[in-house]
Design a protein that fits this description.
With about 325 residues, this protein is of the alpha/beta class. It is built from 14 helices and 7 strands. The chain binds guanosine-5'-diphosphate (GDP).
Length: about 325
């Protein structure tokens, strides 16, 4: 495989080359990892897309929203990539973006690129591969990279840590259900979008939106937020209402963060976070090596038998690791 040729074609925005490049970074094979590193180094480093994380429980309208929102961005002359982080895909055998018909119109646009979640049990592995896929999409000249996830466990954190903006998509709900959204997820959101604000659901959506706006105002102010953010608004992905306003709200926030140093600050913090995560992953992988596993078992038997002190044993084990 000619990596420099592939890098050139990715930089020229060729979608097939981009798809191939993502397949390469998704591979766990040692020789592919070497090529992937070469590829990432050979790409232009100065292109930046707006990375937008999007989370919501199944059925809330994520794919409908991405389709309508993506098409609107394309009409404005922008190029849009859609990636997914789906921790459940390895279990279910499918993935949230596996079914291309979910974004039928968007998938037929040349200005769009849609990629399902890589399937792997490890969220850490999915995270690294998605991060590299984001970099590839940026190098390929995409203006907006949407990173979709389902509201399951840790996946929001993973997506928020690789996004410039985090959107939380919610459905209209009765007042009591407001409690159902975990506080941690609310705290990650820059913009809450209450979807399905159409037809009979419109009054409920408006009320739900006001409830969330109220809840957001009660939360601790973050330094990276200008006045009025984080905010809540209603949209209808189906009737394509409120999407332009949502985009303007996202742009206003982005411009403010850029002007006030928070954009760069966030990306620097994220780079640091991923570096440490990667170190942790590698250390954990070392524990799986046969020699380390055997040493670990022997020491834990000694500890269990009272022949060794837990921390002394741990210290001697860690000191020997990787030698
Ligand atoms: P996802 O599982 O979050 O990707 O949700 P989908 O996009 O597949 O949507 C789930 C269901 O909600 C589908 O039947 C959609 O037609 C419907 N839906 C999505 N957006 C809207 C909307 O804005 N208004 C209404 N009324 N229904 C919607």
């Amino acid at each position: 495989m000619d990596i420099h040729d592939l890098a050139e074609r990715v930089s020229a925005g060729e979608r097939r080359a981009l798809a191939r490049a993502i397949t390469l970074v998704e591979s766990g094979r040692a020789d592919h990892r070497v090529l992937a590193a070469e590829l990432l180094a050979a790409l232009p480093q100065d292109r930046q897309a707006l990375r937008v994380g999007l989370s919501g429980t199944p059925g809330v309208g994520k794919s409908t929203f991405i389709e309508s929102f993506g098409m609107m961005l394309i009409r404005q002359g922008l190029r849009v990539a859609v990636l997914a982080v789906d921790p459940s895909s390895s279990r279910s055998g499918g993935s949230i973006l596996g079914d291309k018909t979910r974004m039928d119109l968007l998938s037929r646009e040349t200005a769009a690129f849609i990629r399902p979640s890589p399937s792997q049990t490890h969220l850490g592995g999915v995270a690294r591969r998605t991060r590299e896929a984001v970099r590839l999409c940026e190098a390929a000249g995409f203006d907006v990279v949407l990173i979709e996830t389902v509201g399951v466990g840790q996946s929001e954190t993973v997506v928020a840590e690789m996004s410039d903006l985090f959107l939380l998509l919610l459905a209209p709900a009765g007042g009591d259900e407001l409690q159902g959204v975990k506080r941690g997820i609310m705290e990650m959101a820059d913009i809450i979008l209450v979807n399905k604000a159409d037809g009979d659901l419109k009054p409920t959506a408006t009320r739900t939106c006001a409830d969330y706006a109220g809840a957001l105002r009660l939360m601790r102010k973050r330094p990276q937020d200008p006045e009025g953010y984080p905010c809540a608004m209603t949209v209808s992905a189906l009737e394509e209402n409120g999407l332009e306003t949502a985009w303007e709200t996202m742009q206003t926030l982005t411009e403010w963060r850029r002007a006030n140093g928070f954009w760069e600050q966030t990306r620097a913090d994220q780079a640091r976070y991923w570096f440490l995560e990667d170190v942790k992953q590698r250390l954990l992988a070392q524990l799986q090596e046969p020699a380390a596993k055997a040493a670990l078992e022997a020491l834990s038997a000694e500890v269990a038998a009272g022949e060794a002190d837990p921390s002394v044993a741990a210290q001697s084990f860690v000191a020997k690791l990787g030698r």
